Amino acid sequence: MIFLSRERASVTEFETKLQSAPKLAAKGRVSRRDFVQLALAAGLTATAANAMFVQTVRAEPKKGGTLKIGIGDAATTDSLDPGSAYGNPFTNTALYGTLSNSLAEIDSKGNVVPDLAESFEPSDGARKWVFKLRKGATFHNGKTVTADDVLASIRHHTIEGTKSNAKSLLESAKNIVADGAETVVFELDGGYADFPYIVSDLPVMPAKEGGADWESGNRTGPYMLEKFEPGVIATFNRNPNYFKSDRGWFDRVECLAIYDVTARTNALYTGEVHYMDRCDLKTLDILKQNPDLAILETTGYGHYVYVMNVQKAPFDNPDVRNAIKYSLDRDEIVQKVFLGHGAIGNDNPIAPAVKFAIDPQPKHVYDPDTVKSLLKKAGAENTRFDLSVADAGFMGATDAALLWQEHARAAGLNLNVIREPNDGYWDNIWLKKPFFASFWAGRPTCDWMFSLAYAAEAVWNETSWKNPRFNELLVAARSETDDTKRAGMYAEMQQLLHDDGGLVNLVFNSYVDAHTTALAHGEVASNWTMDGGKIAERWWFA
């Protein structure tokens, strides 16, 4: 009894110390090791102790250290030019989220808020938008950001011959002018309630004679570019003059392209990187057992898709397209390949969390009888459908396609899976082959997603789908101020795409990343890549 009493007294002592430890930890006066030992003595698990420590020190971010990020998708053809599109996680994280800012940005709630602009206001039925620039914002070379820089940066996406995906998004801007050094005015050809979302995706660069200076990498972000080797590495040093005093805590940031998920995981285990994206879901339970690592999972607008070019045979036949949509068991694929991390897609790119989203009917569930009937109607019973895949398209694209191949065979559809190389996938396969795997980070508004990928002349119209009624509704909904009418228009558009488009939306994916518990962060956006992968800007060492 005496022994038990002493044991209880000892535990109470540890508990008392643990109660005061968070305040000391927040002030940097208790190390992680000592904090964890106290927590373990008080009966907490190692994982809970580490989580408590990280939560405690988040309130007091500290400057310093080198953040190393392992990223699974990059390309040797990546460019500093935002007009060539920051289209993969590496360019989004390194060249946008770490290096650059835009007039506006998307917050963790999915709302558009000022960034380089300190305010933006609509007038004339949202036909006119006035952006007031933030005072004191400078480029990395010390030059003050002016309205002329913004004009050059926006126009960079509209110049003749541009490959920028933003060109179609900016078509409504009939006039962009500077009203003094600190004001930019956009005059649109019609009302556009969502316009600030569009400019949130366009990095601001210095103006130079003849356009915008993208080659130097001189931007406004929390970190200044040191080295950029496309498809390999990008390194940065902290910008001491960043206009956001509560962001950019590290002294240095290194973004490393590590294509192989096993190599990326090993790099996290050994401390070669502090953060990795796109975890291998098959080994996630092993990662979770390591008390020094934490899993970050968010579900937002992103979706994994297979797309058909509807202008090319045999995909130009709507019966063939619908046969393909009914030939896979999405539920089995989500459970076996993604281990339940995601929500089943129904051939609609608008995520449930987006305003005006609907779930089109009927649901495209696995139905062998319907597949056989539609193939017979199209005269395509003996057609071979070549599907190009690589995990560069999305993690699990190959395994999902191989499981789909089994489903399709049982339904009488000959699906031939072609395994393509990861390197160069986005240059050699995407938009080149008629049927391939792809990934979308998604967008926070119906208009943006549709304008970017499904409008007839959109640069990133993967399916080459051109539906007159869809395009008519797209323009009408953009300027409609009555939300009830707008909801009806977007509902019809989603239904049209579901019924007739060349999209096979497999799943709205969860972003599953991992990081060392030495890292801490604030709120994470529901769509992790929507904020440009701003890991470097919004995280710090605990």
UniProtKB/TrEMBL annotation:
<dbReference type="GO" id="GO:0015833">
    <property type="term" value="P:peptide transport"/>
</dbReference>
<dbReference type="GO" id="GO:0043190">
    <property type="term" value="C:ATP-binding cassette (ABC) transporter complex"/>
</dbReference>
<dbReference type="GO" id="GO:1904680">
    <property type="term" value="F:peptide transmembrane transporter activity"/>
</dbReference>
<dbReference type="InterPro" id="IPR000914">
    <property type="entry name" value="SBP_5_dom"/>
</dbReference>
<feature type="domain" description="Solute-binding protein family 5">
    <location>
        <begin position="111"/>
        <end position="441"/>
    </location>
</feature>
<protein>
    <recommendedName>
        <fullName>Solute-binding protein family 5 domain-containing protein</fullName>
    </recommendedName>
</protein>
<dbReference type="GO" id="GO:0030288">
    <property type="term" value="C:outer membrane-bounded periplasmic space"/>
</dbReference>
<dbReference type="InterPro" id="IPR006311">
    <property type="entry name" value="TAT_signal"/>
</dbReference>
<keyword id="KW-0732">Signal</keyword>
<comment type="similarity">
    <text>Belongs to the bacterial solute-binding protein 5 family.</text>
</comment>
<dbReference type="InterPro" id="IPR030678">
    <property type="entry name" value="Peptide/Ni-bd"/>
</dbReference>
<dbReference type="InterPro" id="IPR019546">
    <property type="entry name" value="TAT_signal_bac_arc"/>
</dbReference>
<dbReference type="Pfam" id="PF00496">
    <property type="entry name" value="SBP_bac_5"/>
</dbReference>
<dbReference type="InterPro" id="IPR039424">
    <property type="entry name" value="SBP_5"/>
</dbReference>
